[in-house]
Amino acid sequence: MADIIDGKAFAASLRASIAAEVAALSFQPGLAVVLVGDDPASKVYVANKARQTVEVGMRSFEHRLPAETTQATLLALVQSLNADAAVHGILVQLPLPRHLDADAIIAAISPAKDVDGLTVTNAGLLANGLPGLVPCTPLGCILLLHDRLGGMTGLNAVVIGRSNLVGKPIAQLLLQQNCTVTIAHSKTRDLPTLCRGADILIAAVGRPEMIKGDWIKPGATVIDVGINRVPAAAPGKTKLVGDVAFAEAAGVAGIITPVPGGVGPMTIACLLRNTLTAAKRIESRATLVSEV
Ligand SMILES: Nc1nc(=O)c2c([nH]1)NC[C@@H]1CN(c3ccc(C(=O)N[C@@H](CCC(=O)O)C(=O)O)cc3)C=[N+]21
Q1: So what's the ipTM on this one?
Q2: Does 105 reside within a domain?
Q3: Which residue puts its alpha carbon closest to atom 30 of ligand 1?
Q4: Do 48 and 141 sit in the same domain of this protein?
Q5: To test ligand 1's pocket by mutation, which of 14, 34, 74, 93 has the most ligand atoms within 8 angstroms of CB?
Q6: Are 158 and 199 in a shared domain?
Q7: Three-state DSSP class for 280?
Q8: Burial of 66 (0-12, 13-18, 19+ CB in 10 A)
Q9: Which residues are annotated as a binding site for NADP(+)?
Q10: Judging by beta carbons within 10 Å of its beta carbon (0-12, 13-18, 19+), is residue 241 exposed, middle or buried?
Q11: Which of 165, 172, 188, 263 is the most buried (most CB within 10 A)?
Q12: C-beta 91 within 6 A of ligand 1
């Protein structure tokens, strides 16, 4: 039976260290979260973020806009948050309603406040191994891996999923750790065989329980990024499952993350960490300018 990583406990200790650092600052970091539309799952997630932001001593600015918000209105909001000195981090909850151009909205976010690490600037800095803001879920996965494995040099890592938010940045971080990285996706041939070669398997596809126990190399480390809401046994009820068939996989893997309680809580903790990082960088620049 695999060792199950307690992402909830790890995230709580990360938040405690963030709170201690915030308490020692001479200013209060602020995080703005923008939610367009009223997707119920997103609402819960945004509410959790706001609560944890306040718990670590930061200011939380929530902007809930109706589903029919125009591109111009949303752009104007992003620009006002860019200009707001109390805001150090900006997160626009994705996906946006279909009539909005998400790429243009992301491009409008100041890279210094881009705590999702989604702007071309931050993606490019990551690809070149330079300091920027790293997407929260990939950062959370690497912190968990680092805690469990220490060094990862020479390990075969397979990342299933190629999104800009998760798959691509995780692959960059694993490469920085000297893993041999393969990025798989829906067009990959013979995915089970490819997965069986992975010492580290990262599942970020968004398909409930797609990765089966016999796809996993005995003793491998399995990180399940998927958060899929599916019908539960009781009528009318739902439950969360990952991209990995957990019960099967836990019988084969050496180390595995559960869903819920694995990567999800780390994502929010890393969002707070990125906000702290952004705030310290922005404020130190402001101090330099005012000293001139
Ligand atoms: N711009 C943007 N950045 C994001 O990072 C982003 C986004 N948009 N849109 C939606 C997804 C989803 N996401 C989650 C983060 C944490 C949990 C989380 O804390 N999950 C808990 C359980 C939550 C529950 O019980 O519902 C867990 O896995 O244990 C879930 C989902 C971030 N996302």
Answers
A1: 0.96
A2: yes
A3: 264
A4: no
A5: 93
A6: yes
A7: helix
A8: exposed
A9: 161-163, 227
A10: buried
A11: 263
A12: yes
